[in-house]
Design a protein that fits this description.
The chain is globular, with a radius of gyration of 17 Å. The chain has a single domain, classed as P-loop containing nucleotide triphosphate hydrolases (Rossmann fold), CATH 3.40.50. The two termini are about 15 Å apart. Helix content is about 35%, strand content about 25%. By secondary structure, it is an alpha/beta fold. The chain is built from eight helices and ten strands.
Length: about 230
């Protein structure tokens, strides 16, 4: 059984009076511990697919299964808990909270669970240390470099020991050196924890770091990547 699967997945958005078909009839299976890149041009549906696989959006048709269990049956509150506890997210824009220190940003999944600082601080510090940011733990995001912000975002994704890390264009705002470092950190995370990585990218070099690449075009998967 695949860890993550899409079955006949479709998504339609309403823009004013018009319906826009973003995804159609997508089937995809991803094994536990696999590193999969989802590629394609802008507007091909790759970020929509990631949002559906991660439970950030609900599909218009079809189903997403995690460990064989459909996400659609979960109410919103339970789905939010699942995302906090079992999934990690890394985005191009980092999504760090500007008024929180890097330590607090990494500890945010625990804070959202209502855990006191003493319960998560050691874990968050260890995650920052692992990514070479221990000396930056008290800094606000705007006081560190873009590469350090992205590493802090990866530390936040890893701190919950997720089953799956979803990375949406994580190298898009970085220079080639920092971009390569981020990809290496994702590979290391997969090697050390056995987590699955789903990477959305338009960068062929980034996609080459994955075990396999899935090409999206016009809201569908092309070829035999599924």
């Amino acid at each position: 059984m695949p860890l993550l699967a899409a079955r006949k997945l479709g998504k339609t958005f309403r823009v004013g009076e018009e319906e826009v078909r973003a995804l159609s009839d997508v089937d995809l299976e991803i094994a536990g511990g696999e590193f999969v890149a989802v590629t394609g041009a802008s507007g091909s549906g790759k970020s929509t697919l990631l949002s559906l696989l991660a439970g950030l959006e609900r599909p218009s048709e079809g189903e997403v299964l995690l460990d064989g269990k459909p996400l659609s049956v979960l109410p919103d509150a339970q789905l939010s808990r699942l995302r906090r506890r079992e999934l990690g997210f890394v985005f191009q824009s980092f999504n760090l909270v500007p008024v929180l220190t890097l330590l607090e940003n990494v500890g945010l999944p625990f804070m959202l669970e209502g855990q006191p600082r003493r319960a998560w601080e050691a874990q968050a510090r260890a995650a920052l240390e692992q990514l070479g940011l221990g000396h930056r733990h008290a800094h606000l995001p705007d006081r560190v470099s873009m590469g350090e912000r992205q590493r802090a975002a990866i530390a936040r994704a890893l701190v919950v020991r997720p089953k799956v890390i979803f990375a949406d264009e994580p190298t898009g705002s970085l220079d080639s050196r920092n971009g390569a470092a981020v990809l290496e950190l994702l590979r290391q995370a997969r090697a050390q924890s056995g987590c699955t990585v789903v990477l959305v990218t338009h960068d062929a070099q980034a996609a080459a770091s994955a075990d396999r690449a899935v090409l999206m075009r016009d809201g569908r998967i092309e070829g035999a990547g599924a």
